[in-house]
Amino acid sequence: MSRNYNIAIVPGDGIGKEIVPAGYSVLEAIAKIQKFSIRSETFDWGAGYFLKNGMFLPKDGLDILKKFDAVYFGSVGLPEVDDTLPAKDYTFKVRTNFEQYVNYRPVRTYPGVTRPLRSEKPIDFVIIRENVEGEFVQMGGQYLPDSDAGMGIDTSVFTRKGIERVAHYAFKLAQKRRKKLTHITKSNTLINSLTYWDRIIKEVSLHYPDVTHDQMYIDNCTANFVLRPEVFDVVLTTNLFGDILSDLGGAIMGSLGLGGSGNINPEKDFPSMFEPIHGSAPDIAGKNIANPYGQIWSAALMLEHLGETVAAEKIMTAIDKSTQQGVLTRDLGGNAGTLEVAAAVIKNL
Ligand code: NAI
Ligand code: MG
Questions:
Q1: pLDDT at residue 1, as a whole number
Q2: Does the predicted TM-score (pTM) go above 0.90?
Q3: 20 to 30 A Cα–Cα from 298, which one of 10, 47, 73, 264?
Q4: Could you tell me which residues come within 8 angstroms of residue 30 by beta carbon, excluding any fewer than 6 positions away?
Q5: Equal fold, 1-106+261-349 vs 115-128+137-142+149-253
Q6: How high is the pLDDT of residue 2?
Q7: Arithmetic mean of pLDDT, 40-45
Q8: What is the residue with the minimal CA distance to atom 1 of ligand 1?
Q9: Distance CA 234, CA 8 (A)
Q10: pLDDT tens string 183-216
Q11: pLDDT at residue number 263
């Protein structure tokens, strides 16, 4: 298999412009060590691009991205741009058109990082978020919004095909891990869409008798993320619930800036896209204080997806060494800058 990888880099806005180059420098370093080659092209798409060009990415943007092996992404959004646009015009566009129906969002303990939970028990689970349908299909409308009779409707869409494929992915992942899958629901109140979600997941579970499967309501799940996160292995959730749970996952690790993720097209018909779990954090942008660990972790997830497993493991070990040595950004109570973190990880490689 060829070990030359062609990576599209989309830093996006805000801190993306700082943490993506920091993460990419780690990629370049590990490529040298593991003797594979990466070529990349950087695209200045996002809300900043929208201010100049009236769109988040050019009309042929998806065709351009399609030619790459993977997309290394920061995040999009700026305070001066309508915040209904970044997801609709960039993130969801890529996720849906490239059938990245799995959002892989791991949560774990970082050595040397003080976390907000009292318990010291190690945390190690993966949120698998359905990534292209559910509550985020943006089907709906507003009726006479400026009148007294105004109303707004968003419809959720849950299809058999959509549930089956993400559920199969999650159960297969559980088989490779601690063989436990918890699926998140709220079928006691969303009695049409989420009873269907439960039913299909239960059907799929029959193919994986070696995996212990249970279901948990989203409200109870948020409490358990805080009270006993060590019980989770694979957490299968809908699009909206997964969006919320992954920020909570970041928080229990110690900071939003610690979370890496992959938008995965398991069939590899299209490139997958790797990004931190958080947004463009305009409140701290341009100061070299953003935490790049989640962005660097996303690089490791990308390499794993491309088949460079050893390289991915080496990055994770170097991350752990760096946090253990106290190379921590401000959000973690330290004073290391974004670039210093990247330099420490590279040194530890
Ligand atoms: P956010 O995740 O950007 O920031 C939330 C809080 O966490 C802020 O206080 C921020 O400073 C902090 N934070 C986030 N990442 C950090 C890091 N790496 N290091 C240190 N601190 C960090 O979420 P927010 O403020 O709700 O949204 C800001 C913009 O990002 C909005 O325009 C939103 O639409 C966009 N966004 C984009 C996403 C994407 O492109 N995938 C995902 C989420 C939000
Ligand atoms: Mg989110």
A1: 65
A2: yes
A3: 47
A4: 303, 311, 314, 315, 349
A5: yes
A6: 83
A7: 98
A8: 279
A9: 29
A10: 999 999 999 999 999 999 999 999 999 999 999 9
A11: 98
Asked if residue 281 has its Cβ within 6 Å of ligand 1, the reply is yes
Among protein residues, the one with the nearest Cα to ligand 1's atom 4 is 281
Domain ranges of the chain: 1-106+261-349, 115-128+137-142+149-253
Number of the ligand 1 atom closest to the C-alpha atom of 79:
32
| Ligand 1 pocket, mutate which of 51, 110, 256 (most atoms under 8 A from CB) | 256
Q: Please check whether residue 231 is in contact with residue 123, taking contact to mean a CB–CB distance below 8 angstroms.
A: no
Supply the residue whose CA is at minimum distance from atom 36 of ligand 1.
279
The pair of three-digit structure tokens given for residue 270, joined into one six-digit string: 């299209």
- Token reading at 14: 């805000």
Q: Among all ligands shown, which has an atom nearest to the Cα of 297?
A: 1
Ligand 1 nearest atom to the CA of residue 294, by list position: 18
Q: Which fold has domain 1-106+261-349?
A: Isopropylmalate Dehydrogenase (3.40.718)
Which ligand has the shortest distance to the CA of 240?
2
Ligand at shortest distance from the CA of 73: 1
Residue 245 Cβ < 6 Å to ligand 1: no
Q: Is the CB of 77 under 6 A from ligand 1?
A: yes
Q: pLDDT tens, 123-176? A: 999 999 999 999 999 999 999 999 999 999 999 999 999 999 999 999 999 999
278 CB near ligand 1 (under 6 Å) = yes
210 burial level (CB within 10 Å; 0-12, 13-18, 19+): exposed
Q: What gap in Å lies between CA 266 and CA 268, rounded to an integer?
A: 5
Secondary structure of 95-143 as H, E, C letters: HHHCCCCEEEEEEECCCCCCCCCCCCCCCEEEEEEECCCEEEEEEEEEE
267 falls in which pLDDT band (50, 70, 90)? very high
Return the closest-CA partner of residue 101 out of 68, 125, 137, 75: 137
CATH fold of 115-128+137-142+149-253 reads: Isopropylmalate Dehydrogenase (3.40.718)
The DSSP annotation for 322-333 comes to HHHTT---GGGT
